[in-house]
Write a structure and sequence with these properties.
This protein is of the alpha+beta class. Helix content is 29%, strand content 25%. Strands 4-3-2-1-5-6-7-8 form an eight-stranded antiparallel β-sheet, sandwiched between helices. The N terminus is likely disordered.
């Protein structure tokens, strides 16, 4: 299988995995009473855990992805960033992985996926069809919090404890604009092997503020 095919498969897997996490959060939040459904709650964040791998980050690989996307269409806008760490552990969170970048061309009404490996290999592929509705896009200038800080926020707000209790789980990180709140956010989630237990945190990509959705 070609590298481009792998990139498409991984991007699709990340969309499904993050969608699963979001679905779990939504179902659990709806199961409560209306009076107990805050959109977020302030967590207890104590700087306890350390992300050991800090050299390869989403922000540092981004210029390579942007160059690839602009070579495809010069008007592209960033629509999302994501990566996953399958069967990970406390000392492996943040280990160098391929980052997936999603771009949108308004002139073509088309998405373009770019994958960048830790050693800087780049592959890009357009989506199979045009978009029925333009996705939310954002400027890289508004993206101040890198993946290392987002992962650390997740670990320190309960993710580290959850990962210690559920070894071998997968951790997923996704950056995107929340249209409802107009805020650029990291969503970081850990999901155990059974798919029944999870822990999720939302990190403001501009300020670094951490919040927890209902259902954790």
């Amino acid at each position: 299988m070609k590298r481009r095919d792998w990139a498409i498969l991984l991007a699709a897997w990340l969309v499904v995995a993050v969608g699963l996490i979001g679905g779990i959060v939504l179902m659990q939040s709806r199961s409560g009473s209306a009076s107990s459904l805050p959109t977020v709650r302030p967590p207890t964040v104590v700087a306890t855990f350390t992300v050991e791998y800090v050299e390869v980050t989403a922000r540092r690989l981004y210029p390579l992805a942007e160059a690839e996307a602009k070579a495809w269409q010069p008007d592209v806008k960033l629509a999302g960033v994501s990566a996953a760490w399958p069967q990970t552990a406390l000392n492996l969170v943040g280990k160098p992985v391929a980052w997936q970048y999603r771009f949108y061309s308004p002139s073509q009404n088309w998405l373009y996926f770019v994958s960048v490996t830790p050693d800087g290999q780049v592959s890009g592929s357009p989506h199979l069809r045009s978009e029925s509705r333009p996705p939310a896009t954002f400027s890289a200038d508004d993206w101040q919090i890198d993946s290392v800080q987002a992962l650390a926020g997740w670990l320190d707000s309960g993710g580290g404890r959850f990962l210690g209790q559920n070894p071998g789980e997968q951790v997923i990180a996704q950056l995107g604009l929340d249209p409802a709140r107009g805020r650029l956010e990291w969503s970081v989630a850990g999901l155990d092997a059974t798919g029944q237990k999870y822990w999720m945190a939302v990190i403001d990509a501009s300020s670094g503020q951490v919040s927890l959705p209902p259902g954790n």
